[in-house]
Amino acid sequence: MPRTTPFHSRTSALMESMAWKEWAGYAAACNFDAHSEREYFAIRQSAGLLDVTPLYKYDVTGPDAASFLSRVWTRDITKLKPGRVVYGCMCDGDGKVLDDGTITYLGEDAFRVTSSEPWLGWYSRHSRGMDVEIEDSTDRISALALQGPCSRDILRELTDCDLDSMRFFGTAAGKIAGADGRITRTGYTGDLGYELWMHNADAERVYDALLEAGKPYNMEPIGLDALDVSRIEAGFVLQGIDYICAQRCLIEARKSTPEEAGLGWTVNLDREGWIGRDALLREREVGPKWGLVGLELDWAELEELYDQYNLPPHLAPVACRSAVPVYSSGRSQVGQVTSSTWSPTLKKYLALGQVYAQHAKVGTKLKVEYTVEFERRTVTATVVKRPFFDPERKTFTPNAQPKEGA
Amino acid sequence: MRVVVIGGGHNGLVAAATLAKAGNKVTVLERRDRFGGVADGGLLHDTETLSADVIRSLELKYHGLELLDPAPVFVPSGEGEGLLLHRDPAQAASELGEDAEAYARWRAWLAKVLPFAKGQLNNATLDVRSSAEKMPLLMAGASFRRLGKKTIHELLRVGPSCVDDYLSEWFESPLLKCALAAPALHGTWMGTRSPTSTATLLLHEAQVGKEVVGGPAALVKALLACCEKAGVELKPNAEVTKIRVESGAAKGVDCADGSTLDADLVLSCVGPRKTLLELVSPDALPISTENHIQKVRLRGTLAKVSLSLTEPIDYACRPGLKPERAFLCEDPLDMERAFDAVKHRRMPTVVPLDVRQSDGAASVLIRCATIELEGGWTDERRAELTELALAGLERYVPNIRAIATATETLTPADIAEVYGLEGGHEMHGELALDQLGPMRPAMALSRYATSIQGLFCGSAGIHPGGGVSGRPGALAGQAIQRSVS
Amino acid sequence: MAALGSSQNPYDAIVVGGGHNGLTAAAYLARAGKKVLVLERRHLVGGAAVTEEKYPGFKYSVCSYVVSLLRPWIIRDLNLTQHGLRLVPLECSYTPQPDDAGLCRWADPDKNRREIQRLSRKDADNYPEFGKLMGKLARFAKPFIDEVAPDPTSLSPSDLWQLKKAGDRFKELGDDLAALQFKLTTMGGVDFLREFFESDQLIAPMSCSGIIGTMLGVNSPGTAYVLLHHYMGEIDGSSRAWGFPIGGTGAVSEAIASSARSFGAEIRCEAPIAKVRIAHGEATGVILENGDEIASRTVVSGCDPSLTFLRFVGEEHLPTDFATSLKRYKDRGSSGKVNLALDRFPEFKHRPGIGPHVMGDVAIAPSTDYLETAYDEAKYGTFSSRPFINVVFPSVLDPGMAPPGKHVMSCFVQYAPYDIATGPETWPEHREAFGDAVVDTLAEYMPTLKEDILHRQVLSPWDIQEEIGITEGNIFHGELGLEQLLFQRPTAGWARYKTPVRGLWLGSSGAHPGGGIMGSPGAMAVQEMLRLGAV
């Protein structure tokens, strides 16, 4: 019995497939049409509009807000500049990843943090002695993701924010379709895109305006299925799928350190005073056990496999989230693929997975289990660099101001 | 080694003297203008749990400490003559009537059982994982086994039970049960019907030894003399606001007056919770330590009424006795009723009183005044407390209002403030099974060292806890000495 | 009088008392090919787990009311599902408040989260984390309830081996969990829960599980550990370890009895025994109240320890130490039961309707102070004027329990101390006042309740003792306190079902692992008998 988001009156009117699923207690669209192909191509060719309200949102304010976030998150928020957003992860005391998300600079001593799990309990436990206020704004703030090459053009007509000079991971507060809101140049698709944050009361108005402005560009409302394909292309890990929040794990083996979850780049071990650092310093000595890798499956082999059964290659229309074993060339299991998908843009079969660190080097050949006609077979897969798909437009800024001090 | 000791309570002084005698340069920083902590001014008026090891190793007798057997406790009664309870069964026999034989048997049983507990209390807790301590661990195990199957079974049966049930298995007289049960509740958040209160009774019994002539004041005097002799620098009016931690190691302390002090080692005797949560900056503390220490329970229940007397308190049921110590409560269930008030955050209505008089003054301890009082402690509430003490005394001492003047009443909130005790708790942490031994104050913190290098804790908040015993201070001093050498 | 059961072919075992544990023991014995006779005092089997039609058309689960931890291996071993056992998981745990909608704790984590969020967002966050931690500890503790309890003072290899295994498991937990496990075993329920939660409205109903069957309050040390039982089921974060048996708890007993019969056990009702027959320190059979003697090689008691030893055996046949510790055994009946037949469903003031919120248990536990006050009254010898009540509506889950449209309501009430100040035998004088207190309390939440009552059955601990036979009316056969658990249940050194009387075995809730409809004591007693070749 999930709740509905403030956009529900609009999204449900557009929904034809009745494919809702539960996301953090809210009803969220999987795809609006019978399948998600059109939505996927909207993301890559024009623009897609996605309701991301169910993300957990916390507004953190007060003189110690930055130092508090710097303690709880792996990023040094005291260095986060006005107009910027940063992506990072959060660890428990043993250095195991709890969650990942973004932190947006809202104003002096004010930040908005997003995450996939609720953390108010954790935050309040670790804000002792700090002058900081933490508000769970999940139910108060509605959010939309507008993603795709035309997103800037669509949005430009509706806002007074200077989008042409807003850099990748930039943010600005301003009017969106006449309503007070905030735009961040972020997203989960690896494409040019924005996320829009507004009060619940303005949600429907903004949605309507976007639909209208998007028409000339063939913008589509999109659901989570299309998003899933594009996030794998972008090489983004998903909490609960590619790694599991340490607090939700019953056994140690299921937990991952940032390095093991592919989030090592968000961690600066030289910085002191954040939760998990001590344990991760110890990990640095011995090296991580696992590595998160991007894999490309050998298409010729796949085709050949199907050929043996006189079948054309059958590609699921959605990303696959059930884990399958990965073997070394020596046939011993060395890890598992956690998400995989056919990439309609790259025309490749892509996968994300965790393998023992010694097998995680780019170029390593591995075997991934693949089932054809109920028989388990393996297909060669090569470790490749992530992201798989990385268009220039993702980071290109038309009127980029030279960086301060540059 | 330069050692800074934070807090000049009795444990701080014991630790300082221990360390100075071992050749360290020791400075004691005390927030108040006087030393002694809860022993000063007789906030706790009994010294019978003072550690014999401390007396010996600090040669306190040489510094003027005189000892004698603990004074008997008088429990007055409304009807009858009351009960004067000596620890020695032979002396007590005439008072006890039918219970005399059981009392002798009980004391004999304790004499058999308690040496084991004493051994644990006089030493640091053992680390189950450390291989270096396999031997002492095995020895402790063996000496436990030596108690015999029957005794162990008995201990495991009675330990978790409540002191009222337990004492009722042995004794008939409610007065006797009251006298014995009273110390079982010191520093706890329990009543006589609370399970595990028998364990704290045994814990108390294991600590009792001799008493200091002149009470806590005399002890503090002797400790100060000992410290001076050993070359300890004693600094009153020096409130520490911060322990400086640099790359995981304690480097010194900052004081309220802006001065700073460098040190190789810092020993904090102000309570482990306060030390780690208030004096150490949060980012220097590993979160598992923080999680554990934050959960330490220290809900104070102690209040004190000081009386000045024109003549000694003489209980009507036994005129002329004028006992030094008395415990005013006739029914173990009244102690439970008193705890009910604590539990429900109310002013107590039934108030057992722990009275000690000497030299024209009396100290009356109330152990059922909760720091969590609904509505908070106000001046009116303080006055009520004074009245409760006087009214309680008046039941047995009709002329009390004529001979006594209340000079000072300390509510738990006052105690928290005056003595700098978090939660107003005289032991920096409740005595409870999960806050004792290796769990005092919390897992992995019971051995005086903390997760911060060079920072040690050594107050009653840490193993083995207790009132005016000096054990935690001495053991902390020894632990530091071991880590140095 | 000639002995029944001819001396050529006596019974291998007689089971005294046809409660669910006695029946389980009989079924296991028969399953092992032994000749077994169960003797039950009453006209029906089940003991405290019986369903009776006390008012035409309305069936009451007279004493017990839910199935907590009926062991899955017993269900499988005895084919209980084939013998008619059907368990429905409880959907929800509802705690109404007098002035607002109260709290429903649901099996569904997201639904649950939304409920708790109304009280505290932090608590809503911490609840699943708490569930995970409890799940981990439950994995640690589970072997203890499914194995014979080791005696820490024993030097026997099996005890030492078990202790070593437990020690290893404890070490594997690591510092944080080990500390938590220790706290869980020794702390009071409320104190323990406060380490995780701030909302009293959440803590109160959670803390209740620790006081059921004890004469302790939610603040009393040692009451936290029962929380773990909720997490011993396979489903985490929910209270689904509790189930309601279709047909009432009597149906569980019936299923076990049917299984026992199918293995060849003989069950005789209305056969009260007077004594366990003892010759040369050995149990050789039983003597019935009518004077008949029945011989058997062994006797298994499904009755509580006090009844078994102090009445059926007699002190003269017991070692002094054992007799002393049994006399010190705390039976301490502390709960009563009120069963109501209702003309219609008595809707809750702030959550009307017959929805999923009443398809589980309803706990009248509005605050921890409320619960503690209820305990305070009992401590000084009166029943709680505003008691803790655990309500189940069997007819909502199983329409067969009442005529169509009508309902039965089963109220487990605490505290009703057996040792009431005026003496336990005066309970009949207080019975109706006690019933009124319960109904008055419930009416504060269900305004129409009083008008809807067609019939009321009130059982004080005294009544349970008189009717069912359990000493002091404690349906758990003795307080579930720390000092009466594991190797100390019923008394140290005698927790392995064997007794000082040769040939007499204890297989009731008064033996490890204790009370509730688990079946383990009966089953494990027999396993131990078979292992030692005693039968």
In short:
Chain A has helices spanning 8-14, 37-45, 65-72, 120-125, 151-156, 203-214, 224-233, 277-286, 299-308, and strands at residues 19-23, 26-31, 48-51, 56-61, 85-91, 97-107, 110-115, 133-136, 141-147, 171-176, 179-184, 193-199, 220-221, 290-297, 324-327, 333-343, 348-356, 365-372, 375-384.
Mean pLDDT of chain C: 91
- What is the number of strand segments of chain B? 17
- Helicity level of chain B: 25-40%
Greatest interface and its residue counts?
A: B-C, 37 and 36 residues
- Let me know the CATH homologous superfamily of the domain at 2-35 and 50-63 and 213-295 and 436-484 in chain B: FAD/NAD(P)-binding domain
Low-confidence stretches of chain C: 1-6, 234-240
CATH architecture of the domain at 2-35 and 50-63 and 213-295 and 436-484 in chain B: 3-Layer(bba) Sandwich
What would you call the shape of chain B? globular
Number of helices of chain C: 16
Uncertain regions of chain B: pLDDT < 50 for 5+ in a row? Answer: none
- CATH topology description of the domain at 2-35 and 50-63 and 213-295 and 436-484 in chain B: FAD/NAD(P)-binding domain
CATH C-level category of the domain at 2-35 and 50-63 and 213-295 and 436-484 in chain B = Alpha Beta
Between the first and last Cα atoms of chain C, what is the distance in angstroms? Answer: 26 Å
**Number of helical segments with 4 or more residues of chain B:** 17
Rounded mean pLDDT score of chain B: 94
CATH names the topology of the domain at 11-50 and 65-87 and 248-330 and 478-531 in chain C as: FAD/NAD(P)-binding domain
Describe the structure.
The complex is a heterotrimer of chains A (406), B (485) and C (535). Chain A is of the alpha+beta class. Chain A has three domains: 8-55 and 139-222, Gyrase A, domain 2; 57-136, Alpha-Beta Plaits (2-Layer Sandwich); 289-387, Aminomethyltransferase beta-barrel domains (Elongation Factor Tu (Ef-tu), domain 3, Beta Barrel). Chain A is 19% helix and 31% strand. In chain A, a hairpin with a 2-residue loop joins strand 6 and strand 7. The mean pLDDT of chain A is 94. Chain B has 485 residues and is an alpha/beta fold. Among the domains of chain B are: 2-35 and 50-63 and 213-295 and 436-484, FAD/NAD(P)-binding domain; 88-205, no CATH class. Chain B is built from 17 helices and 17 strands. Chain B has helices at 10-21, 52-57, 89-96, 100-121, 134-145, 149-158, 163-170, 174-181, 197-207, 215-230, 272-279, 287-294, 332-343, 379-394, 400-403, 412-418, 471-484; strands at 2-6, 25-29, 67-68, 73-75, 83-85, 211-212, 233-235, 240-246, 249-255, 260-262, 265-268, 303-309, 325-328, 353-358, 361-366, 404-410, 455-457. Chain B is globular, with a radius of gyration of 22 Å. Chain C has helices at residues 20-31, 72-77, 109-119, 121-146, 157-186, 189-194, 200-207, 249-262, 305-313, 320-327, 368-379, 394-397, 427-443, 449-452, 461-468, 520-531, and strands spanning 11-16, 36-39, 51-55, 58-61, 87-89, 92-95, 103-106, 243-245, 266-268, 273-279, 282-288, 293-301, 335-342, 361-364, 388-392, 407-414, 453-459, 504-506. The longest helix of chain C is centred in the first third of the chain and has 30 residues, at 157-186. Mean pLDDT of chain C is 91; it is low at 1-6 and 234-240. Chains in contact: A-B, A-C, B-C.
